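Figure 2 data, in text form.
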Amino acid sequence: MKPLKTLLILCAGLLSGAAVMAAEPLPQRWISSGGSLSEWVVGLGGESRLVGVDSTSQHPQSLRGLPSIGYQRQMAAEGMLALRPDVLIGSEEMGPPPVLAQLRGAGVRVEVLSAKTDLSTLRANLQRIGTLLGDPQRADQAFSAYQLRVQQQADWLALAQRQQAAPGVLLLLGHAGGSPMVGGKDTSADWLITRAGGFNLASHRGFKALSTEALLALDPEVVIIADRSLAGEAARDALLLQNPALAATRAARNQRLLMLDPTLLVGGLGPRLPDGLAALSAAFYPASQSLVADTKPTP
């Protein structure tokens, strides 16, 4: 009887702990850092809980009316604590670390999610956000819809590449035409280029500057421009002015300089990325009919 009694006590303890966890109140006042994560918080029904966002959180447009906590890597604790948050959610890109420690010391829950660009990481992130919002089922539905769109993209690409080889591509992340950083391996830029059907010519890891000689030697067929402060033709013209070697590439000569919203590259895989992939694929493979996706992530 004694082992049975011990087992019953243990089970009762576990059930009691589970009940306490279930009864723990969900965080009501959120701060989000990282554009893609902020978009997912909104997409999973948490916009009304947001009391502040970082400067990369620009979508949907309604987020721009919230108090800003600054750039995700240069946040200040005082401004965030003034918003009385229950939780700060962001990727490992956010910081600096002493600020995060100060927030934890003040009783703010700090949730650090991965910005790794793969579907398994996205699934884990969505499940965590869904749990914090009290709606994990909605998170599962959003992931399933996202996974379907990525598969549709892959199927479309397989057909397009029967007619055309993958173009050589570079993604340049710049600021007002200054010296751009080139997205290499293990970056959101590489994930985007590859999934859209391009071949990333940058063999280094992370983001780094390339010399004029290196850029000319790579001679990309397509260049994607993501500028943090300028948009459209203004960004393209400023980049060409400050980096004349770019004008000598095949991409510039053939007018294959593509513009990309830089917030798509922040915070991991975001809900707008499938649309971005479809647009890039259409530019990479102009002879193929553009991919029209009927299924989108659950808002």
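Caption note: Confidence is low (pLDDT under 50) at residues 16-22, 293-299.
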